[in-house]
Write a sequence for this structure.
DNA sequence: TATACTGTTATATAATTATATAACACTAGA
DNA sequence: TCTAGTGTTATATAATTATATAACAGTATA
């Protein structure tokens, strides 16, 4: 789901955009050959400057996720979708955490720390 | 566990420092009254400039996590530790993901997307 | 009191990130 | 061919982030 960038998260906007589009590909919501919305539409969706969109698309292109056709649009270049099993594991975990009314930021902090320490 | 900042993650160094220290508090590894390492030691641990450490400590102070005593040091101001149950849920999830040899970056991307969409 | 630790304040410089704005080039369809 | 939509390139400006470096101020202890 492509959504507004969080301008207070500290993470650069162009990286948030890269991450959202990568997520869509990983989750299988954007498949090989799909066309992205136009740059000027993406600019509105993410609520950033056109140059910020361009910077994100440039990075995705350099990493092989998308390709550009001048005058036509941007297209998904490869499928990178992840094993459904992985998604289920994460969905189950997120559901449990939400049951315990933990907030996203705290959850991420602990997730990162646990990951890097075990 | 306080460790070197990742200079290629895109996340500003001072925020990574804030996050690491918050994590230690949330996990109960730093408790009320504990003294942090000195600024000049932290500078070496995180591998950043002293001003970057200061910016992080300033933010933690403004959020009520720590307090300063001039000439003495920085101290944890409150306990914010999280329910052990939460930590167990996350540990279990991380273990399962590692069993499936998924990398950290992919895991975080999916985690964020699942959290924000369900 | 002298010293070696603490934290604090300040200035200058550079790289990165984001914005505003404009113009240009290619493509598809009326 | 004209037009409206694509992507592309460019310039200028500002805010944020990070560095290097120096000096100052408080605390504890030998």
């Amino acid at each position: 789901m492509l959504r507004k960038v969080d301008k207070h998260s500290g993470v650069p906007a162009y990286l948030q955009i890269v991450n959202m589009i990568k997520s869509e590909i990983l989750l299988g919501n954007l498949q090989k050959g799909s066309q992205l919305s136009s740059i000027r539409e993406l600019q509105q969706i993410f609520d950033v400057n056109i140059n910020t969109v361009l910077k994100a698309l440039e990075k995705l292109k350099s990493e092989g996720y998308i390709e550009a056709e001048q005058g036509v649009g941007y297209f998904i270049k490869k499928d990178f979708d992840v094993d459904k099993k992985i998604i289920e594991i994460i969905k189950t975990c997120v559901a449990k955490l939400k049951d315990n009314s933990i907030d996203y930021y705290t959850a991420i902090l602990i997730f990162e720390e646990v990951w890097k320490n075990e």
